[in-house]
Amino acid sequence: MMTRMVAAETLEAAALEVASAVPDPELPVVTLGDLGIVRGVSVAGDGVVEVQLTPTFVGCPATEVIAADVRAAVEARLARDGAAGVEVRTRMVMAPAWSTDWISEDGRRKLAEHGIAPPAGGGRAADAGPVFVQISPSPSPHPPTQKSSCCPHCGSAETRELSAFGSTPCQSLRACRACGEPFGAMKSL
Amino acid sequence: MSTSSLVDNSLVAQYALQLGDDALILSQRLSEWCAHSPELEEDVALANLALDLLGQARTLLTYAGTLEGRGRSEDDLAFLRTEREFRNVLLVEQPNGDFAVTIARQLYFATYQYELYTALRESTDAEFAGLAAKAVKEVAYHRDHAVQWTLRLGDGTEESHRRMQEGLDLLWPYTAELFAADSVALALAETGVAVDPRTLRPAWEASIAAVIEAATLTMPGGSWQPRGGRAGEHTEGFGLLVGEMQALHRQFPGAAW
Q1: What residue spans in chain A does CATH classification 3.30.300.130 cover?
Q2: Nearest CA of chain A to the CA of B226: how many Å?
Q3: What pLDDT is attached to residue A141?
Q4: Dihedrals φ, ψ of A24, to 5°?
Protein backbone atom coordinates (compact mmCIF):
# COMPACT_ATOMS: atom_id res chain seq x y z
CA MET A 1 0.00 0.00 0.00
CA MET A 2 2.80 2.35 0.99
CA THR A 3 4.70 1.75 -2.24
CA ARG A 4 1.56 2.44 -4.27
CA MET A 5 1.05 5.78 -2.54
CA VAL A 6 4.65 6.80 -3.12
CA ALA A 7 4.32 5.69 -6.71
CA ALA A 8 1.21 7.80 -7.13
CA GLU A 9 3.00 10.87 -5.78
CA THR A 10 5.92 10.27 -8.11
CA LEU A 11 3.59 9.91 -11.07
CA GLU A 12 1.77 13.11 -10.13
CA ALA A 13 4.97 15.10 -9.75
CA ALA A 14 6.36 13.88 -13.08
CA ALA A 15 3.06 14.51 -14.86
CA LEU A 16 2.73 18.01 -13.42
CA GLU A 17 6.28 18.89 -14.41
CA VAL A 18 5.90 17.71 -17.98
CA ALA A 19 2.36 19.09 -18.47
CA SER A 20 3.46 22.51 -17.21
CA ALA A 21 6.34 22.54 -19.70
CA VAL A 22 4.13 21.91 -22.76
CA PRO A 23 4.20 24.99 -25.02
CA ASP A 24 0.93 26.76 -25.78
CA PRO A 25 -0.01 25.84 -29.38
CA GLU A 26 -0.92 29.40 -30.34
CA LEU A 27 1.68 31.26 -28.28
CA PRO A 28 4.54 28.73 -28.25
CA VAL A 29 6.91 31.12 -26.47
CA VAL A 30 5.03 30.46 -23.25
CA THR A 31 4.25 27.17 -21.56
CA LEU A 32 0.93 26.00 -20.21
CA GLY A 33 2.49 26.41 -16.75
CA ASP A 34 3.38 30.04 -17.51
CA LEU A 35 -0.22 30.72 -18.53
CA GLY A 36 -1.73 29.03 -15.48
CA ILE A 37 -3.72 26.61 -17.61
CA VAL A 38 -2.55 23.47 -15.76
CA ARG A 39 -4.59 23.38 -12.56
CA GLY A 40 -3.38 20.12 -11.06
CA VAL A 41 -2.63 16.45 -11.48
CA SER A 42 -4.02 13.53 -9.53
CA VAL A 43 -4.10 9.80 -9.81
CA ALA A 44 -7.79 8.98 -9.93
CA GLY A 45 -9.44 6.04 -8.18
CA ASP A 46 -9.30 4.00 -11.37
CA GLY A 47 -5.50 4.42 -11.56
CA VAL A 48 -5.66 6.90 -14.43
CA VAL A 49 -3.38 9.93 -14.23
CA GLU A 50 -5.72 12.89 -14.58
CA VAL A 51 -4.44 16.34 -15.56
CA GLN A 52 -6.85 19.18 -14.81
CA LEU A 53 -6.77 22.01 -17.33
CA THR A 54 -8.74 25.23 -17.55
CA PRO A 55 -9.54 27.26 -20.69
CA THR A 56 -8.47 30.91 -20.93
CA PHE A 57 -11.65 31.62 -22.90
CA VAL A 58 -14.55 29.14 -23.00
CA GLY A 59 -14.48 28.94 -26.78
CA CYS A 60 -10.71 28.93 -27.26
CA PRO A 61 -10.10 26.61 -30.22
CA ALA A 62 -6.64 25.71 -28.89
CA THR A 63 -8.24 23.89 -25.96
CA GLU A 64 -8.49 20.54 -27.73
CA VAL A 65 -4.96 20.73 -29.09
CA ILE A 66 -3.73 21.58 -25.61
CA ALA A 67 -5.46 18.52 -24.15
CA ALA A 68 -4.00 16.25 -26.83
CA ASP A 69 -0.49 17.73 -26.42
CA VAL A 70 -0.61 17.28 -22.66
CA ARG A 71 -1.78 13.70 -22.93
CA ALA A 72 0.99 12.83 -25.40
CA ALA A 73 3.71 14.57 -23.38
CA VAL A 74 2.70 12.97 -20.09
CA GLU A 75 2.39 9.51 -21.64
CA ALA A 76 5.85 9.82 -23.19
CA ARG A 77 7.37 10.89 -19.88
CA LEU A 78 5.69 8.13 -17.89
CA ALA A 79 6.85 5.57 -20.44
CA ARG A 80 10.40 6.86 -20.03
CA ASP A 81 10.09 6.64 -16.26
CA GLY A 82 9.11 2.99 -16.51
CA ALA A 83 5.38 3.57 -16.09
CA ALA A 84 4.46 2.74 -19.68
CA GLY A 85 0.84 1.84 -20.18
CA VAL A 86 -0.45 4.04 -17.38
CA GLU A 87 -3.51 5.74 -18.80
CA VAL A 88 -3.54 9.52 -18.94
CA ARG A 89 -6.60 11.71 -19.34
CA THR A 90 -7.30 15.41 -19.19
CA ARG A 91 -10.28 17.08 -17.59
CA MET A 92 -11.45 20.64 -18.28
CA VAL A 93 -12.37 22.51 -15.12
CA MET A 94 -14.27 25.76 -15.43
CA ALA A 95 -14.18 26.89 -11.80
CA PRO A 96 -12.44 28.83 -10.49
CA ALA A 97 -12.49 30.88 -13.68
CA TRP A 98 -9.10 31.51 -15.30
CA SER A 99 -7.73 34.97 -14.78
CA THR A 100 -4.81 36.83 -16.29
CA ASP A 101 -3.55 36.96 -12.68
CA TRP A 102 -2.45 33.39 -13.18
CA ILE A 103 0.12 34.24 -15.83
CA SER A 104 3.51 33.92 -14.13
CA GLU A 105 6.14 36.67 -14.05
CA ASP A 106 8.21 34.49 -16.34
CA GLY A 107 5.26 34.16 -18.69
CA ARG A 108 4.69 37.92 -18.74
CA ARG A 109 8.34 38.52 -19.60
CA LYS A 110 8.32 35.92 -22.40
CA LEU A 111 5.14 37.38 -23.91
CA ALA A 112 6.63 40.87 -23.94
CA GLU A 113 9.84 39.58 -25.55
CA HIS A 114 7.70 37.94 -28.22
CA GLY A 115 5.95 41.22 -29.02
CA ILE A 116 2.73 40.58 -27.10
CA ALA A 117 2.01 43.02 -24.31
CA PRO A 118 1.26 41.19 -21.06
CA PRO A 119 -2.04 42.09 -19.36
CA ALA A 120 -2.03 45.63 -18.04
CA GLY A 121 -1.58 46.51 -14.41
CA GLY A 122 -0.53 43.05 -13.28
CA GLY A 123 -4.09 41.98 -14.00
CA ARG A 124 -5.43 42.11 -10.47
CA ALA A 125 -8.92 40.68 -10.51
CA ALA A 126 -10.49 43.97 -9.47
CA ASP A 127 -8.97 45.65 -12.51
CA ALA A 128 -9.84 42.94 -14.99
CA GLY A 129 -12.31 43.31 -17.84
CA PRO A 130 -13.17 46.25 -19.99
CA VAL A 131 -13.53 49.65 -18.44
CA PHE A 132 -17.19 50.34 -18.88
CA VAL A 133 -18.30 52.85 -21.33
CA GLN A 134 -17.72 56.46 -20.58
CA ILE A 135 -21.17 57.91 -21.08
CA SER A 136 -20.36 61.22 -22.68
CA PRO A 137 -22.07 63.09 -25.48
CA SER A 138 -19.15 62.77 -27.86
CA PRO A 139 -17.18 59.59 -27.42
CA SER A 140 -13.88 59.52 -29.22
CA PRO A 141 -13.87 57.36 -32.36
CA HIS A 142 -11.89 54.60 -30.69
CA PRO A 143 -12.32 55.00 -26.98
CA PRO A 144 -9.99 52.81 -24.97
CA THR A 145 -11.87 49.93 -23.46
CA GLN A 146 -9.00 48.57 -21.48
CA LYS A 147 -6.29 50.10 -19.38
CA SER A 148 -3.30 50.72 -21.57
CA SER A 149 -0.49 48.26 -22.06
CA CYS A 150 3.06 49.34 -22.78
CA CYS A 151 4.37 48.85 -26.32
CA PRO A 152 6.39 45.60 -26.43
CA HIS A 153 8.57 47.08 -29.20
CA CYS A 154 9.73 50.43 -27.80
CA GLY A 155 8.36 50.34 -24.25
CA SER A 156 6.25 53.47 -24.60
CA ALA A 157 3.17 53.70 -22.40
CA GLU A 158 1.49 55.83 -25.06
CA THR A 159 -0.57 53.20 -26.80
CA ARG A 160 -4.13 53.03 -27.99
CA GLU A 161 -6.62 50.25 -28.59
CA LEU A 162 -7.53 49.48 -32.19
CA SER A 163 -9.95 46.71 -31.27
CA ALA A 164 -10.80 44.77 -28.13
CA PHE A 165 -10.58 41.62 -30.26
CA GLY A 166 -7.42 40.22 -31.79
CA SER A 167 -5.75 37.24 -33.38
CA THR A 168 -6.65 34.90 -30.53
CA PRO A 169 -9.60 35.11 -28.10
CA CYS A 170 -7.28 36.20 -25.28
CA GLN A 171 -5.72 39.14 -27.13
CA SER A 172 -6.75 42.65 -28.11
CA LEU A 173 -5.20 44.71 -30.87
CA ARG A 174 -3.32 47.88 -29.97
CA ALA A 175 -1.00 50.37 -31.66
CA CYS A 176 1.85 52.43 -30.24
CA ARG A 177 1.63 56.21 -30.57
CA ALA A 178 5.41 56.55 -30.19
CA CYS A 179 6.81 54.03 -32.69
CA GLY A 180 3.63 53.48 -34.69
CA GLU A 181 3.82 49.69 -34.51
CA PRO A 182 0.66 47.64 -33.95
CA PHE A 183 0.83 44.79 -31.43
CA GLY A 184 -1.27 42.17 -29.71
CA ALA A 185 -1.96 42.58 -26.00
CA MET A 186 -3.28 40.02 -23.55
CA LYS A 187 -6.75 41.07 -22.43
CA SER A 188 -7.25 41.49 -18.70
CA LEU A 189 -9.72 38.87 -17.61
CA MET B 1 -23.60 17.32 -12.17
CA SER B 2 -26.63 18.80 -10.54
CA THR B 3 -25.86 19.46 -6.89
CA SER B 4 -29.29 18.53 -5.63
CA SER B 5 -30.82 15.15 -6.26
CA LEU B 6 -34.22 16.73 -5.62
CA VAL B 7 -33.93 18.73 -8.82
CA ASP B 8 -35.60 17.23 -11.86
CA ASN B 9 -32.77 16.46 -14.28
CA SER B 10 -34.98 16.72 -17.34
CA LEU B 11 -35.90 20.28 -16.38
CA VAL B 12 -32.23 21.17 -15.87
CA ALA B 13 -31.48 19.66 -19.28
CA GLN B 14 -34.19 21.82 -20.85
CA TYR B 15 -32.77 24.93 -19.21
CA ALA B 16 -29.26 24.08 -20.44
CA LEU B 17 -30.72 23.60 -23.91
CA GLN B 18 -32.44 27.00 -23.82
CA LEU B 19 -29.28 28.87 -22.85
CA GLY B 20 -27.12 26.71 -25.10
CA ASP B 21 -29.37 27.28 -28.12
CA ASP B 22 -29.37 31.05 -27.53
CA ALA B 23 -25.57 31.02 -27.66
CA LEU B 24 -25.34 28.59 -30.59
CA ILE B 25 -27.78 30.41 -32.86
CA LEU B 26 -26.36 33.87 -32.19
CA SER B 27 -22.90 32.43 -32.84
CA GLN B 28 -24.11 31.09 -36.19
CA ARG B 29 -25.66 34.45 -37.14
CA LEU B 30 -22.50 36.38 -36.20
CA SER B 31 -20.37 33.96 -38.21
CA GLU B 32 -22.26 35.06 -41.33
CA TRP B 33 -20.38 38.36 -41.05
CA CYS B 34 -17.05 36.63 -41.67
CA ALA B 35 -15.33 38.43 -44.57
CA HIS B 36 -18.30 40.83 -44.92
CA SER B 37 -17.65 43.31 -42.11
CA PRO B 38 -17.16 47.01 -42.76
CA GLU B 39 -13.50 46.80 -41.71
CA LEU B 40 -10.93 44.13 -40.92
CA GLU B 41 -10.87 44.80 -37.17
CA GLU B 42 -14.63 44.33 -37.09
CA ASP B 43 -14.41 41.08 -38.99
CA VAL B 44 -12.05 39.82 -36.32
CA ALA B 45 -14.24 41.21 -33.55
CA LEU B 46 -17.47 39.60 -34.75
CA ALA B 47 -15.74 36.27 -35.32
CA ASN B 48 -14.35 36.44 -31.78
CA LEU B 49 -17.81 37.13 -30.36
CA ALA B 50 -19.13 34.14 -32.32
CA LEU B 51 -16.32 31.97 -30.98
CA ASP B 52 -16.98 32.90 -27.36
CA LEU B 53 -20.67 32.09 -27.82
CA LEU B 54 -19.83 28.79 -29.48
CA GLY B 55 -17.72 27.88 -26.47
CA GLN B 56 -20.65 28.57 -24.16
CA ALA B 57 -22.96 26.59 -26.44
CA ARG B 58 -20.66 23.56 -26.47
CA THR B 59 -20.48 23.49 -22.67
CA LEU B 60 -24.24 23.89 -22.26
CA LEU B 61 -25.26 21.41 -24.96
CA THR B 62 -22.81 18.82 -23.64
CA TYR B 63 -24.35 19.27 -20.19
CA ALA B 64 -27.88 19.02 -21.59
CA GLY B 65 -26.97 15.80 -23.38
CA THR B 66 -25.45 14.31 -20.24
CA LEU B 67 -28.47 15.13 -18.08
CA GLU B 68 -30.91 13.92 -20.68
CA GLY B 69 -29.28 10.49 -20.54
CA ARG B 70 -30.08 9.49 -24.11
CA GLY B 71 -26.46 9.48 -25.20
CA ARG B 72 -26.69 12.60 -27.36
CA SER B 73 -23.48 14.60 -27.77
CA GLU B 74 -23.13 18.33 -28.36
CA ASP B 75 -22.87 17.61 -32.09
CA ASP B 76 -26.01 15.47 -32.08
CA LEU B 77 -27.91 18.29 -30.42
CA ALA B 78 -26.55 21.03 -32.68
CA PHE B 79 -26.68 19.21 -36.00
CA LEU B 80 -29.37 16.57 -35.79
CA ARG B 81 -32.33 18.36 -34.23
CA THR B 82 -35.03 19.78 -36.44
CA GLU B 83 -36.07 23.41 -36.48
CA ARG B 84 -38.98 22.92 -34.06
CA GLU B 85 -36.70 21.27 -31.49
CA PHE B 86 -34.55 24.38 -30.94
CA ARG B 87 -35.36 26.37 -27.83
CA ASN B 88 -33.59 29.70 -28.51
CA VAL B 89 -35.35 33.03 -28.16
CA LEU B 90 -36.45 34.69 -31.40
CA LEU B 91 -34.09 37.67 -30.95
CA VAL B 92 -30.91 35.67 -31.62
CA GLU B 93 -32.18 34.16 -34.87
CA GLN B 94 -33.18 37.49 -36.42
CA PRO B 95 -31.30 38.13 -39.68
CA ASN B 96 -28.18 40.29 -39.48
CA GLY B 97 -29.63 43.13 -41.54
CA ASP B 98 -27.19 45.99 -41.94
CA PHE B 99 -24.38 46.53 -39.45
CA ALA B 100 -26.62 48.70 -37.24
CA VAL B 101 -29.21 45.92 -36.93
CA THR B 102 -26.47 43.50 -35.88
CA ILE B 103 -25.21 45.99 -33.30
CA ALA B 104 -28.74 46.55 -31.97
CA ARG B 105 -29.14 42.79 -31.56
CA GLN B 106 -25.76 42.62 -29.81
CA LEU B 107 -26.64 45.49 -27.50
CA TYR B 108 -29.92 43.91 -26.43
CA PHE B 109 -28.60 40.39 -26.10
CA ALA B 110 -25.14 41.00 -24.59
CA THR B 111 -26.66 43.30 -21.96
CA TYR B 112 -29.21 40.60 -21.14
CA GLN B 113 -26.60 37.85 -21.07
CA TYR B 114 -24.37 39.94 -18.82
CA GLU B 115 -27.20 40.31 -16.28
CA LEU B 116 -28.16 36.65 -16.64
CA TYR B 117 -24.66 35.25 -16.11
CA THR B 118 -24.00 37.68 -13.26
CA ALA B 119 -27.02 36.22 -11.46
CA LEU B 120 -26.35 32.63 -12.56
CA ARG B 121 -22.95 32.66 -10.82
CA GLU B 122 -24.98 32.04 -7.66
CA SER B 123 -26.75 29.00 -9.12
CA THR B 124 -27.00 25.96 -6.83
CA ASP B 125 -25.99 23.92 -9.87
CA ALA B 126 -22.18 23.84 -9.94
CA GLU B 127 -22.04 23.43 -13.73
CA PHE B 128 -24.13 26.55 -14.40
CA ALA B 129 -22.34 28.55 -11.70
CA GLY B 130 -18.91 27.63 -13.07
CA LEU B 131 -19.78 28.47 -16.67
CA ALA B 132 -21.49 31.73 -15.68
CA ALA B 133 -18.52 32.92 -13.62
CA LYS B 134 -16.25 32.22 -16.57
CA ALA B 135 -18.46 33.50 -19.37
CA VAL B 136 -19.57 36.71 -17.67
CA LYS B 137 -16.03 38.02 -18.02
CA GLU B 138 -16.14 37.40 -21.77
CA VAL B 139 -19.64 38.80 -22.17
CA ALA B 140 -18.48 42.01 -20.47
CA TYR B 141 -16.36 42.56 -23.58
CA HIS B 142 -19.32 41.74 -25.84
CA ARG B 143 -21.48 44.31 -24.10
CA ASP B 144 -18.74 46.89 -24.26
CA HIS B 145 -18.29 46.28 -27.99
CA ALA B 146 -22.01 46.83 -28.66
CA VAL B 147 -22.17 49.91 -26.43
CA GLN B 148 -19.20 51.56 -28.15
CA TRP B 149 -20.71 51.00 -31.58
CA THR B 150 -24.17 52.20 -30.51
CA LEU B 151 -22.58 55.44 -29.30
CA ARG B 152 -20.55 55.90 -32.48
CA LEU B 153 -23.42 55.19 -34.83
CA GLY B 154 -26.09 57.01 -32.82
CA ASP B 155 -23.96 60.09 -32.30
CA GLY B 156 -22.32 59.85 -35.72
CA THR B 157 -23.68 61.06 -39.02
CA GLU B 158 -27.32 61.63 -39.88
CA GLU B 159 -27.30 58.38 -41.85
CA SER B 160 -25.67 56.28 -39.13
CA HIS B 161 -28.06 57.76 -36.54
CA ARG B 162 -31.05 56.89 -38.71
CA ARG B 163 -29.89 53.33 -39.27
CA MET B 164 -29.04 52.72 -35.61
CA GLN B 165 -32.48 53.94 -34.56
CA GLU B 166 -34.12 51.71 -37.17
CA GLY B 167 -32.13 48.72 -35.93
CA LEU B 168 -33.17 49.34 -32.32
CA ASP B 169 -36.83 49.83 -33.31
CA LEU B 170 -36.86 46.76 -35.53
CA LEU B 171 -35.62 44.37 -32.85
CA TRP B 172 -37.20 45.91 -29.77
CA PRO B 173 -40.34 43.71 -29.94
CA TYR B 174 -38.19 40.58 -29.62
CA THR B 175 -36.66 41.70 -26.31
CA ALA B 176 -39.86 40.94 -24.36
CA GLU B 177 -39.27 37.21 -24.77
CA LEU B 178 -35.92 37.46 -22.93
CA PHE B 179 -37.79 38.28 -19.72
CA ALA B 180 -40.93 36.19 -20.19
CA ALA B 181 -42.08 33.92 -17.37
CA ASP B 182 -40.85 30.69 -18.93
CA SER B 183 -42.13 27.62 -17.08
CA VAL B 184 -38.78 25.77 -17.10
CA ALA B 185 -36.82 28.72 -15.71
CA LEU B 186 -39.49 29.51 -13.11
CA ALA B 187 -39.66 25.93 -11.82
CA LEU B 188 -35.87 25.79 -11.50
CA ALA B 189 -35.60 29.27 -10.01
CA GLU B 190 -37.49 27.97 -6.97
CA THR B 191 -34.56 25.71 -6.09
CA GLY B 192 -31.93 28.27 -7.04
CA VAL B 193 -30.76 26.40 -10.14
CA ALA B 194 -32.03 28.93 -12.66
CA VAL B 195 -32.61 32.67 -12.73
CA ASP B 196 -36.20 33.99 -12.90
CA PRO B 197 -35.99 35.88 -16.21
CA ARG B 198 -38.41 38.57 -14.99
CA THR B 199 -35.94 39.72 -12.32
CA LEU B 200 -33.37 40.68 -14.97
CA ARG B 201 -35.52 43.26 -16.71
CA PRO B 202 -35.04 46.37 -14.48
CA ALA B 203 -31.25 46.33 -14.61
CA TRP B 204 -31.30 45.53 -18.34
CA GLU B 205 -33.71 48.33 -19.14
CA ALA B 206 -31.79 50.89 -17.07
CA SER B 207 -28.57 49.96 -18.81
CA ILE B 208 -30.09 50.07 -22.31
CA ALA B 209 -31.83 53.38 -21.61
CA ALA B 210 -28.57 55.01 -20.47
CA VAL B 211 -26.73 53.92 -23.60
CA ILE B 212 -29.54 54.97 -25.93
CA GLU B 213 -29.77 58.38 -24.31
CA ALA B 214 -26.00 58.93 -24.48
CA ALA B 215 -26.08 57.94 -28.14
CA THR B 216 -28.71 60.66 -28.79
CA LEU B 217 -31.16 57.94 -29.81
CA THR B 218 -34.74 57.36 -28.70
CA MET B 219 -35.85 54.44 -26.53
CA PRO B 220 -38.22 52.26 -28.59
CA GLY B 221 -41.70 52.02 -27.18
CA GLY B 222 -44.55 49.61 -26.61
CA SER B 223 -45.39 47.31 -29.45
CA TRP B 224 -46.29 43.74 -30.23
CA GLN B 225 -44.32 41.11 -28.35
CA PRO B 226 -43.63 38.04 -30.49
CA ARG B 227 -42.77 34.90 -28.52
CA GLY B 228 -42.53 31.20 -29.10
CA GLY B 229 -38.84 30.43 -29.40
CA ARG B 230 -38.74 28.57 -26.09
CA ALA B 231 -41.56 26.38 -27.38
CA GLY B 232 -39.85 25.73 -30.71
CA GLU B 233 -41.98 28.15 -32.72
CA HIS B 234 -39.51 30.16 -34.76
CA THR B 235 -39.51 32.96 -37.33
CA GLU B 236 -39.30 32.58 -41.07
CA GLY B 237 -35.55 32.91 -41.56
CA PHE B 238 -34.72 30.27 -38.96
CA GLY B 239 -35.18 27.30 -41.29
CA LEU B 240 -32.51 28.61 -43.64
CA LEU B 241 -30.13 29.22 -40.77
CA VAL B 242 -30.58 25.66 -39.46
CA GLY B 243 -30.23 24.27 -42.98
CA GLU B 244 -26.92 25.98 -43.53
CA MET B 245 -25.63 25.16 -40.05
CA GLN B 246 -26.42 21.46 -40.41
CA ALA B 247 -25.69 20.86 -44.10
CA LEU B 248 -22.17 19.54 -43.73
CA HIS B 249 -22.90 17.28 -40.79
CA ARG B 250 -25.95 15.81 -42.49
CA GLN B 251 -24.14 15.16 -45.78
CA PHE B 252 -21.11 13.68 -44.07
CA PRO B 253 -22.45 12.09 -40.87
CA GLY B 254 -19.90 12.10 -38.09
CA ALA B 255 -17.55 14.43 -39.95
CA ALA B 256 -14.83 15.80 -37.68
CA TRP B 257 -11.89 18.08 -38.34
Answers
A1: 2-92
A2: 31
A3: 37
A4: -70, 135
